[in-house]
Amino acid sequence: MTTSAIKKQVDNYLPLLPKGQQSLVLEVIKSLFEEVSSSDRIGKTQYNKEIDAAVARMDAGDFISHEDALDELSKL
């Protein structure tokens, strides 16, 4: 669903709610925004740094092959 379609639905339904429930909807929306804003996501720079480090480990031979991983899992 597009952002404009969502906005249109909110604009249509929100006025149908009593004022107290409208306030509650607003508080829920705010709490969702705070949750997203305070998440533990890393930035693009840190992400790229971690990818580069992983590629360097693989290039150095520091990895487990898919076949070896399956062998280990079959022993469990």
Give a written overview of the molecule.
There is one protein chain. This protein is mostly helical. It contains 4 helices and no strands. It folds into 2 domains: 31 residues; 31 residues, no CATH class. It is elongated, with a radius of gyration of 24 Å. The mean pLDDT is 89.
Please name the defining characteristics of this protein.
single chain; 76 residues; mainly alpha; 4 helices
Give the topology.
Blueprint: H1 3-13, H2 19-37, H3 44-59, H4 66-74
**Sheet of most strands:** none
Rounded to an integer in angstroms, the radius of gyration calculated over CA atoms is 24 Å
The succession of helices and strands, N to C, reads HHHH
Q: Which percent band covers the strand fraction? A: under 5%
Oligomer: single chain
Helix content percent band:
over 70%
Number of domains: 2
The coarse silhouette is elongated
Tally of helical runs: 4
Low-confidence parts = none
Mean pLDDT: 89
